[in-house]
Write a structure and sequence with these properties.
Layout lengths: L6 H7 L12 H17 L4 E5 L2 H7 L11 E5 L5 E5 L3 H7 L5 E5 L5 H11 L4 E4 L5 H11 L2 E4 L1 H8 L4 H24 L6 H15 L6 E6 L19 E8 L1 E2 L2 E2 L2 E7 L4 H20 L7 H13 L16 E3 L6 E5 L12 E4 L3 E3 L3 E3 L3 E6 L2 E4 L11
Parallel strand pairs: 1-5, 3-4, 5-6
Antiparallel strand pairs: 1-2, 2-3, 7-8, 8-11, 9-10, 12-13, 14-17, 15-16, 17-18
């Protein structure tokens, strides 16, 4: 099926994805806030400050990115959440906000840090746990201007966001299903001479036809370019006999997909087939190793054991796997926990990971098969079924 169609024909086949996952409910967001309160109290803080970004969306439904202006939400261990926002953004914030919260506004010449300090004083609070994704510049200014005792809140943010609810998993499933459809269409429409840029444009258009807002990201590499995990700059043209590596995803209500396929355009060289088969075996071993209570690093060890059995590696040596076996995923493409040596976070229900122990033959070619899985009481479950063969997507 690879190269059997055209871009126009494949786009014409796609239409809005029909199986839409429900939105996150207000009740679920409130439960997240209550869990954050407990974790904040457990770490010895009086309140939690969340900056604009993925965590603000997680707790409040506000899909804003961070900028130089402080926009955030303070969750006290007791009391209503409080939003800090520029005055002129009030209407936009109220339109996006999906929880009940108080609001304090600041004008352009005023300090938002003073509003935070006053809120903490009103609550009789002195210790503020701060979202680790906030910029160092913003947090250091907050500390200088308020004198608050500031603690880093990774244990709170990760303690909430690492464990996905059934509603989150359903949204992620939709995103991954949509991206799999795009992968299949992309493989079918390839032709000799097409550029990586043209493939990227097709993937953008295909995600949009399915109802996504476009790509969350895309990497397309041909031949020699596949030897570099995140690709080479510039345009490449597809030739007969090239390996094709496509890594892409989309967002559904903020939750993302991130799936890679590597396949042959034409007939594979024996070495391509050998490395592809080892990659598939390593990916399967990582999946099979998932068990509640095991440390995340155990999954990485399982994948690398396969490579060593076949004479690759060891560790990060090449030919072999130059990076971790996988990463957490949710509202961010890469988020804790990580399937890598040294991450001893216990695997538990609802944790979601990529599984991608890429094999690189230096400066020659690479193979990455990336699917995502989530932890259940019975081990891992795939969001998407792994690729079956080097000549089928």
């Amino acid at each position: 099926m690879i190269g059997s169609s055209t871009p126009a024909a494949e786009l014409a086949k796609l239409s809005a994805y029909p199986h839409l996952a429900p939105a996150i409910t207000v009740a679920e967001r409130q439960a997240r806030i209550e869990k954050a309160r407990k974790l904040t109290r457990d770490m010895g803080a009086d309140a939690l400050l969340i900056g604009a970004g993925a965590s603000l969306r997680y707790f409040a439904g506000v899909p804003w990115g961070a900028s130089e202006r402080l926009v955030g939400m303070i969750i006290p261990v007791a009391g209503e959440p409080l939003l800090i926002c520029p005055f002129f953004e009030r209407g936009s914030l109220e339109a996006d906000l999906q929880i009940t919260a108080d609001m304090r506004l600041w004008q352009e010449h005023e300090s938002p840090h003073a509003l935070i300090a006053q809120a903490m004083k009103d609550w009789g609070a002195a210790v503020l746990a701060v979202d680790p994704a906030m910029s160092f510049e913003m947090v250091s200014r907050l500390g200088r201007e308020t004198g608050l005792d500031i603690k880093e809140a990774s244990s709170v943010i990760n303690g909430c966001r690492m464990y996905k609810s059934p509603a989150e998993i359903a949204l992620m499933q939709q995103a991954k299903d949509m991206t799999i459809l795009v992968h299949k269409a992309t493989a079918r429409m390839l032709y000799e001479g097409i550029t990586t840029g043209e493939v990227n444009n097709f993937i953008e258009a295909a995600h949009r036809k399915l109802g996504a807002s476009g790509n969350s990201f895309v990497i397309t590499q041909f031949g020699h370019g596949t030897a570099y995990p995140h690709g080479l700059p510039g345009e490449q043209r597809l030739k007969d006999g090239d390996l094709v590596l496509v890594d892409t995803g989309c967002y559904v209500q903020g939750y993302t997909s991130d799936i890679t396929r590597t396949y042959i355009f034409g007939q594979p060289k024996p070495e391509y087939q050998r490395i592809w088969d080892i990659e598939k075996e390593a990916q399967a071993a990582a999946f099979a190793r998932v068990e509640i209570g095991l440390p995340c690093e155990a999954v990485d060890y399982a994948a690398r054991a396969v490579l060593e059995k076949h004479g690759l590696g060891p560790d990060y040596n090449l030919p072999g796997t130059p990076h971790r076996t996988g990463h957490g995923i949710g509202l961010s493409i890469h988020e804790p926990a990580y399937l890598v040596r040294g991450d001893k976070t216990p695997l538990d229900i609802g944790m979601c990971f990529s599984n991608e122990p890429m094999i690189v033959v230096p400066e020659t070619f690479g193979v990455r098969l990336e699917d995502h899985m989530y932890v259940t009481e019975n081990g891992a479950k795939w969001f998407t079924e792994p690729q079956e063969a080097i000549d089928r997507v």
